[in-house]
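I would like you to help me understand the sequence and structure tokens below and explain how sequence relates to structure.
___
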Amino acid sequence: MSDAGPEKKNAPDDDAWIEKVVNLAGNLGFNKMRLRWKLIRWQDKRRKAKNLAEQERLHVDYAHKTCGECGAIQDREQKVCTACGKKLSSRTWQILGRMGLTAPQAISVSTLLAVSILLAYARVWTAQGGGFGAPSGYLLVDFGGTWRPLMAEEPWRLLTSVFLHAGLWHLAFNLLAIASIGPRIEELYGRATMAGIFILSGVIASYGSISIRATGGVGIGASGALMGLIGLAAGYGHRAGRGRGHGLRDDMLKWSAYTFIFGFAVGADNWAHLFGALVGAAFGLAVKPAWWARKAWVPARVLLGLIGVAGTVGALVLIMTRHPTTPEERAVASKAESAELLVSHYTAVCTPLYAGDVPKAIAAAKEFAADFEIDDYTLDAAGVEMMCDGIEQMRTWCTKLDTLQGEIRTQYAEVCPMYEPLFKALPPRPPNP
């Protein structure tokens, strides 16, 4: 007590200025009591901020290491945790981590995935002739984006779409996410597992999204795969249950919230985000890193690693070897696709109508309208009759093309070949009773 007394007595009074300001303001007509309390509260906030900054500085500059797996304190020269056997990162990376900065190692899965995404972007960028504009939907489809009419014959698009991006901002956000989250997954579960979960989450996210989305836009981006990694880290952190585990979980939940909010704001594919997150969270909740490191799980780890490597290499090969279609080729493909859609949809509507199954015909007409985003049809029995009456009238005129004259004949001569496959697939309409 005797040592502290003189020091306290000689220390300047940090609050003395408050009374001076209050007295001066009182002479000018201000409410002294109200001003005093406002200044005291401001001073308290300033002290708390100063103390918090000092604590943060001490945390960042802490002399020892802490194990990312179990949280045990380790000597700064220690390479492996003496409590759990987990490999410790260097003190430099630990300091950067305490500052909230993480980066993949020079040669790691996170780095290789980032490079693969950059290569895919460069391929599309050169195909569009450079520039800072986002690639067109046609170009993204050409290089492997998911698009519903092509998925039945080209399911590999579920994979290639993960490595394609719509512009520099889209690319930059996902590269930042890989650099921030990827190294954490590699440390927890290993490089092979990180690669496998990335590919599996991305493919399942693509499949889930294109299966459930009402509209048929082009699907691209690594966000679903990254949400798989975020979900994995969140699931692990929740199961770990310790302070550090819950801290990691909360950080990942923030990442998820930002991703979904941003997705709603810009119209991104939140269905893909959701499916990817569910895949990763299920793995993180079900599998502890300590279990996963056992010899019994070697086959599963090898399998995930093979999925990761094969998926990444396969996607790059497909993207790098593809070429953009010309406008003429797009026109031919569009015409063929339109003919195919006409056959499938009108056959699905009119065939049950001709057989007397009106409810089935109405259901097919609603699906038709949803796929083409048509909202001005009256989808009841009369509306379905009108659709099929139009097809039958066109079938009649196409069979009498030689009897038509002038502009009418020219118009029908252009469209009849497109409808010919439909006329062949559609059964004859029975006569009205």
Remarks:
- The first strand starts at residue 65 and ends at 66.
- The chain is about 70% helix and 0% strand.
- Residues 1-12 have pLDDT under 50 and may be disordered.
- The two ends are 112 Å apart (CA to CA).
